[in-house]
């Protein structure tokens, strides 16, 4: 019941005359628990970088946008079954995903990192983490990377990223793998993250982590809705509005393409 009321209170409705190509109502799938990207605040309202970016895009396109809260691994099935029209959930643009859905151009970039207790002295390598319990959110590129590279580790899968961090804090995990920005701003910079930090290198392998984070769409909508969203993203980037949103939430630049 609380989720239902939070959903209603968090509606991104923005009235206006819709453009000819995009639908008048756009249902956007979010996976909450990714502070400061998307989360339900103490007031029951959706908040975060991706929430504000969705509002800005909807305002520019004169669309009524409605949030749909789902677990991450349910987003693509919901898109394909037409329960939602777009995905904004820190979803990496990968070759595998591009075989089943379309994406806009990237709106932010961030590597994957391992997180563990600062005094753990873990060696971040397949042999160094043999037998160790590594937590990861189910359905993510991070899960696929762990399954392919860290085959001898015990991979523990969770429905949400918050559940991963909770078990890491409680000592039920030796380490976790997550998007670096989500880990830093959603865990390490909070009281629960005291005593924890990044260990090992950045992971940016394109065969796993793709070309950046984009808005997921049905392939049939790429030429219409996708083009309009790309034009709106380009306009927000060109006006400085995208960078201003970045600076509101982050102390580092996540929206400029890496060199």
TrEMBL record:
Signal sequence coordinates: 1-20
GO annotations of cellular component type: cell envelope; membrane
Domain (Solute-binding protein family 3/N-terminal) ranges: 25-253
The UniProt record lists the keyword Signal: yes
Main location: other
PROSITE patterns: SBP_BACTERIAL_3
TM helices/strands, residue ranges: none
Location of the protein in the cell: Cell envelope
UniProt keyword list: Signal
Occurrences of domain Ionotropic glutamate receptor C-terminal (ranges): 25-252
GO molecular function per UniProt: ligand-gated monoatomic ion channel activity
Keyword Signal: yes
Similarity comment text for this entry: Belongs to the bacterial solute-binding protein 3 family.
Name of the protein in question: Amino acid ABC transporter substrate-binding protein (PAAT family)
Organism this protein belongs to: Roseateles saccharophilus
């Amino acid at each position: 019941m609380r989720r239902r009321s939070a959903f209603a209170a968090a509606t991104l409705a923005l009235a206006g005359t819709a453009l000819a190509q995009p639908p008048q109502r756009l249902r956007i799938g979010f996976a909450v628990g990714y502070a400061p990207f998307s989360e339900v605040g103490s007031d029951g309202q959706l908040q975060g970088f991706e929430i504000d970016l969705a509002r800005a895009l909807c305002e520019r396109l004169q669309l009524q946008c409605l949030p749909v809260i789902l677990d991450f691994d349910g987003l693509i099935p919901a898109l394909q079954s037409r329960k939602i029209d777009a995905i904004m959930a820190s979803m990496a643009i990968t070759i595998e995903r591009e075989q089943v859905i379309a994406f806009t151009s990237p709106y932010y970039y961030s590597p994957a990192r391992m997180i563990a207790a600062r005094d753990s002295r873990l060696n971040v390598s397949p042999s160094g983490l043999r037998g160790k319990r590594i937590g990861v959110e189910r359905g993510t590129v991070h899960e696929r990377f762990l399954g392919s590279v860290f085959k001898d580790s015990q991979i523990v899968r969770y429905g949400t990223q918050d559940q991963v961090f909770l078990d890491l804090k409680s000592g039920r995990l030796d380490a976790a793998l997550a998007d670096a920005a989500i880990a830093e701003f959603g865990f390490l910079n909070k009281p629960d993250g005291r005593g924890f930090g990044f260990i090992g290198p950045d992971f940016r392998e394109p065969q796993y982590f793709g070309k950046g984070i984009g808005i997921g769409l049905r392939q049939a909508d790429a030429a219409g809705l996708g083009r309009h969203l790309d034009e709106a993203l380009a306009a927000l980037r060109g006006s400085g509005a995208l960078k201003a949103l970045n600076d509101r939430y982050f102390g580092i630049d996540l929206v400029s393409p890496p060199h």
